[in-house]
Each structure stands twice: as structure tokens, then as C-alpha cells.
Amino acid sequence: MSNQAADLLHDGVSAPHLGAEPKDWLALLKPRVVSLVVFTGAIGLVIAPGHINPLLAAIAIFCIALGAGAAGAINMWYDRDIDAIMRRTTTRPIPAGKIEASAALGYGIVLSVISVVLLAMATNLCAAAVLAFSIFYYAVIYTIWLKRRTPQNIVIGGGAGAFPAVIGWAAVTGHVALLPMLLFLIVFFWTPPHFWSLSLYASTDYEKAGVPMLPVVKGARHTRWNVFIYTLLLFPLALSPWFLGLAGRIYGATAFVLGAAFLYFAWAVLRDKQDAKGVSLSKDAPARAAFKFSILYLFLLFAAIAVDRLV
Amino acid sequence: MMAAVQKDEDYANDRMPRVEIVESHWSDEQKVEFLRRRRARNFLLLAALGGFCLIIYVIAMVKLHEYGQMW
Known about the structure:
The structure holds 2 protein chains of 2 kinds.
Chain A: H1 3-9, H2 15-18, H3 22-27, H4 31-47, H5 54-78, H6 80-83, H7 101-122, H8 125-146, H9 153-173, H10 178-201, H11 204-209, H12 214-217, H13 220-243, H14 249-270, H15 285-310
Helix pairs in contact in A: 4-5, 4-9, 4-15, 5-7, 5-8, 5-9, 7-8, 8-9, 9-10, 10-13, 10-15, 13-14, 14-15
Chain B: H1 2-13, H2 28-67
């Protein structure tokens, strides 16, 4: 927002009267989350056997991004009450008063329908059905049903981020096979250590909003153990495409090195110096490092399987 | 002074229907800001609708060219 616009807003006129800016509508789509979705969806397209016209492939990726963004808009609509409480999310368009909640819901639903219909037209019904289910999964099963009910919310929510690779594969082949299912499971098991590492040093917001995140409900010590256990489970899972013969040596070597490095970071999180209550004495430095590495891990792992398939 | 005159002209030249869409107590700057945002939103909607039509067109052309049918 320009300084002038900000002055206008503070001049006794609330934001809804002046109306939202285009960037506010784009912010409803959670662009940063969508960027990861685009990446994994594109990898699913690249590694799938068969041919797809490049234009249709680009449209398929666009549809995956649009569907993910639409689910994000519905998520922001439902979570508007807790978004207004948490410092990290108070600037989102709905709690900031820039967009009305009902408008955001309508926006999310319309974009969901458009993304599914366009994907069906551009590729096939299988890919469109998986996209539709992934939107339903994130918006209803995760956001509305489970997020506020269980400290395992992020484990279940991880499924939503795991679908794009499956959708990308289905867009090319018209069906779902073992390899995309393994990629689904990799993202599914990657999400808990990724997100709990973050929540170890950023859980006060969730506590304030009453969201039962694991560190809030079970404490930091329990969360550190969970980070380590999920990373341990992720290690053989990430190697499985190689030892099942679905990926080559490049992927196998990359998955081994990255998995070992991720285990090292998770071990450092577990062994972090802490007081009797489990509070970190190092300002959660290992958790911060593990969170950063987890992003690199997924990026390199998926890039490796694409490179492995292309060479 | 020049900027204020320009804003007045922008507001006067707005070609949207003259309905009571702005609060009477708003300053000229606020009215101009309101109109700027509405114009930006309208262009975004226009681009979105245009993009939607373009995508449908591209899908139809590619599918008809490659497979001879849409479905």
C-alpha cells in the first residue's frame, strides 16, 4: 500500500469503504504456498510416462495452482477469527478489513470450480477428480474439521500439500500409479518435521488463538521427539522409489545424502539444550536450522527425481 | 496544487455510472483513491475473464488439432 493510501485509510475511513486492491485478492490465494504446489505438480508432470502437449501441461499446472489458491481462500474465510488474533496473520485481507468474508468464500468456491473444470477439459477426469478431492481435503477435512480439534492436525494437513505430484502424474497418464503415491507419502511424512520445527519457535500465536498445535498441547520436548521420529520414517520412504526400481541411482544417492542430512538436523533438534520444561536454551537454533533445511530437502529431492527421469 | 487539480479531473472524468457509491463526507483524495482501486479491480477482472476465454480457446485448438475431438 502506498503511503498516501495508508494515510487515507487512517483518515477516519475504514478500508472496506475504499475497497480492496487487486493485490488483496491475490493475497487470498496464498501465493507462497502455491509456489511449492506448482513445483511438485510440475515434477509430477515431468516424471510421468507418456506425452502431453506443452500448452496443456502449462494449463494443467495453472489449474493446480488455481485450485490450491482457491482452497487457500476458503481456508482464510474459515480461519478469519483466529487470523485476527495471531500476529502473523492479522494483515491478511479479511482480518485487515479489506475483503468481506462472504466475498472471499464466494471467490474461493468459484475459483475451485473453474480450476477443476478447466483441468478436466485440458487433461482428463482422473486429474480433475484428484484436484477436486485435494481442495475438499484442505478446505473441509483439514481446515474445518480437524485443524482445531487435534494436535495431529498438521500430519493430516500434510496430505493437502502432497496431492499436486499425483495430479501432475494423472494429468499425463489418466491414472494414479505407485510412484506418484510414493511421492505423496514423502510429502505427507515430510510435512510434520517441517512444520513442527517452525512451530517450536513460533507457537505462541497458535496458543493465543487456541489452535491445538503439538508444542502447545504436548510441549516442546514431545514435539522434538516427533520431529525426529517422522524424519526417521521419512528416510526409508524417500529411498523407496529407488529400491523399488522406480527411480535411478541419481535419485537414490540424492535421497540417501539428503535423508542423512535431514536426520542430522532432526537429531540436533532432539538434543537441543533445554530447561526442565523443555524450553530451548539456544533460542531454538537447531529447530530454525531444521526448518530451513527441510525446504531445501524437498526441493532437491523432487528435482533429483526429475533429473533422474530426464537423463 | 497541481496534484489536487489532477485528482479532481480524474474524479470528474471517471466514466463509471454516477450512482451514490462514495460517502458524502469523503475528501476528494479519498474519492480518487476509491475510484483508483475500483478501476484496478475492474482491470483485474477483465484480465481474468480474458485469460479464461484464452485458456478455453487454447484447450479447444490443441485438443481438436491433436485428437480431432475435445473429449
